[in-house]
Amino acid sequence: MVLTFLVNLLCAVVNCAPDFGQPGDSLVGSRLGARVLDLNGTVLQPPLVETLGGSLEGYFMKTISGREIYAFEGIPFAEAPVGERRFRSNHLAGRWTSLAARHARCPESSTEKLMNCLRSRNPVRLVSNQFKMLDYFPNFPSVMFAPVVEPKSSHAFLTETPEEIYARNGTLPVPYIASNVEEEGEVIIIALPVLLLFSPFQKEWRKLAPVMLGYKNIKGVNKDSVTDAIEKYYFKNKTARNFELPGFGRMTTDRYFSPGIYRGLQLHSRIAPTYSSVFNYRGRFGIPTAFGLGNERSKYKVGHSEDLFYVFNMSTYSQGLKLTDPEYEISKFMVNSIVNFAETG
Q1: Does residue 304 or residue 42 have the better pLDDT?
Q2: Among 50, 100, 109, 132, which residue's CB has the most CB atoms within a 10 Å radius?
Q3: The domain boundary residue, chosen from 31, 61, 77
Q4: 82, part of any domain
Q5: Of 264, 259, 289, which is closest to residue 274 (Cα–Cα)?
Q6: pLDDT, tens digit (0-9, with 9 covering 90-100), for 85-95
Q7: Is residue 160 one of the residues assigned to a domain?
Q8: Confidence at residue 53, expressed as pLDDT on a 0 to 100 scale
Q9: Are residues 183 and 321 in the same domain?
Q10: pLDDT given at position 215
Q11: CA 87 to chain centroid
Q12: d(C-alpha 257, C-alpha 304), whole Å
């Protein structure tokens, strides 16, 4: 799991090169640290942007669906963990932690007491309390308090970034497999219409896009031009008022999922056998069923976390699998694959 915040500017800050292919890549989609050439053989420099908090170097990557994008990590303009300010540093997150603690009626005298109290609270209530701090709704991502790197102390939870841990060989060299689905961002395009949020979101698109996609505080960039470039790349020049949901799903995949999955694979592949799987079975159980759209399953690709419905045979959001269901065989295959991998690597 990669805890470092990863943000993708969706080919908007600079033009996407026509070809990112590199001979000798051992990992599909791996581009980090490699010399990248265009079709004319010219060496392309890594993308670089200037933010209000400093410069930020990105890297080239290709998604599992073949989309070529630039990805960036470690956004440095941290303030409060809400809206565009959710990219926080440890010394600025404290006051927002206090606000969350007060909403949950938990003590703030120590991290240990606070965490023990939060663990005892109803998780639905904790999420509900967080929505009171949003700049707008829907917020992307909905999880506002991601981990921060803390100074070393007896009660610190995370004191190093994943890159630092890997650099000092602090990670066990065990085989690793990352599970992807057909289109991770599909979960968003199912949720927005069902929650009656897509129309308001469209109306505010030009205002929300820079916040949602992480380019509001990029220096020297015309925000409207960036939004235009995103619309051209993902929505084929359609405006927010009539862009299609599949394009929005692809954009969400690349913004919130692809760079993190890629970066985790890239880091771990240096120390141990590393694999990636893609789950694209469109069965009767999954996110569409959970949102009451089971009869429209064929309209949607497989979205984020749908593979878990088959791994754990969950009955929380659907009736669960029966022995006579054809999906039960898929579930058995998924479970056996994971168990075999755990046993043999």
Answers
A1: 304
A2: 100
A3: 77
A4: no
A5: 264
A6: 333 444 455 66
A7: no
A8: 56
A9: yes
A10: 80
A11: 14
A12: 9
Output the pLDDT for position 106: 93
253 in any annotated domain:
yes
Is the pTM higher than 0.90? no
What is the helix (H) or strand (E) element at residue 259, kind and residue range?
helix 258-268
Residue among 81, 27, 42, 36 nearest 59 (CA): 36
More confident residue, 310 or 2: 310
Q: How far apart are CA 176 and CA 241, in angstroms?
A: 42
- Residue of higher predicted confidence among 72 and 27: 72
More confident site: 285 or 225: 225
Distance set, CA 17 to CA 32, 42, 173, 175, 226 (Å): 15, 11, 35, 33, 16
Asked if residue 317 and residue 184 are part of one domain, the reply reads: yes
Q: Check residues 339 and 197 and name the one with the higher pLDDT.
A: 339
Task: Give CA–CA dist 75/214, Å, rounded.
Answer: 9
Taking alpha carbons only, the member of 144, 19, 160, 157 closest to residue 80 is: 144
Q: In 3-state terms, what secondary structure has residue 229?
A: helix
Contact 143, 134 (CB under 8 A): no
73 and 181 part of one domain: no
The rounded distance, in Å, linking the Cα atoms of 21 and 72 is 19
Pick from 72-81, 129-138, 252-261 the range whose average pLDDT is largest: 252-261
In this structure, the strands spanning 176-181 and 36-37 are unpaired
Q: What is the mean pLDDT of the chain?
A: 72
Distances (CA, A) of 130 to 70, 76, 115, 171, 250: 31, 23, 16, 33, 27
Count of the separate structural domains present in the chain = 2
Task: Point out the domain boundary residue: 20, 45, 77.
Answer: 77
For residue 85, is it within any domain? no
Q: Which structural domain range is residue 330 located in?
A: 176-344
Say how far apart CA 269 and CA 166 lie, in whole Å: 11
